[in-house]
Design goal:
This protein is mostly helical. It has 2 domains: about 1-105; about 110-160, no CATH class. The protein has 9 helices and 2 strands. The chain has helices at about 1-5, 15-30, 35-45, 70-80, 95-100, 105-115, 120-130, 140-150, 155-160; strands at about 85, 105. Strands 1-2 form a two-stranded parallel sheet. Strand 1, helix 5 and strand 2 form a beta-alpha-beta unit. It is globular, with a radius of gyration of 16 Å. It starts with a helix and ends with a helix.
């Protein structure tokens, strides 16, 4: 979301998308609580009041492989989004998404392209992320290592070269 603060992206989500990532993160991170993540979602909604998409039509004019992801596409249509950023590209077939004018892209590819387009703003976003981390506080290299663990290795390597 630091990229959004630099106006490099315009984020969109739904309550269902937020519930999915909260549920999955609680499974992976036993040190976090639902209350903490609910607070995070509230901060996200306050910081980006136009990001939460409501009243979208889940009946799609295309077929995607996982019916459980149809709400993501429906929200993207309502938001008039050009991209869906996901690690799960297989569930958003390129030929079907193209019919909607939406491209599913891996976050690593997307952010690494942003670095090429506007490295100064991406560096500012990264530095803001490092600065805002408090629990625990991390050095830039530690944040880069975390990015690598989150499947953002190209992004991490590009940032490492220009920081």
């Amino acid at each position: 979301l630091n990229l959004a603060e630099q106006q490099l992206i315009k984020p969109h989500w739904t309550d269902q998308i937020n519930e999915e990532w909260v549920r999955n993160l609680l499974i992976k991170r036993k040190d976090l609580t639902r209350d903490q993540l609910t607070t995070t979602v509230a901060y996200m909604n306050a910081a980006f009041p136009d990001a939460n998409i409501v009243e979208y039509n889940a009946d799609l004019p295309i077929t995607i492989s996982d019916k459980h992801d149809e709400h993501v596409v429906a929200a993207a249509i309502k938001a008039r989004a050009h991209f869906i950023l996901t690690l799960n590209l297989k569930d958003f077939p390129e030929n079907e998404m193209k019919k909607l004018g939406i491209r599913a892209e891996h976050p690593d590819q997307f952010i690494s392209t942003l670095i090429e387009v506007d490295s100064k703003s991406v560096i500012t976003a990264f530095n803001n992320q490092v600065e805002n981390l408090r629990y625990p506080k991390m050095r830039p290299e530690e944040v880069l290592q975390k990015l690598e663990k989150c499947n953002l290795s190209v992004t991490s390597n590009k940032l490492r070269k220009i920081l």
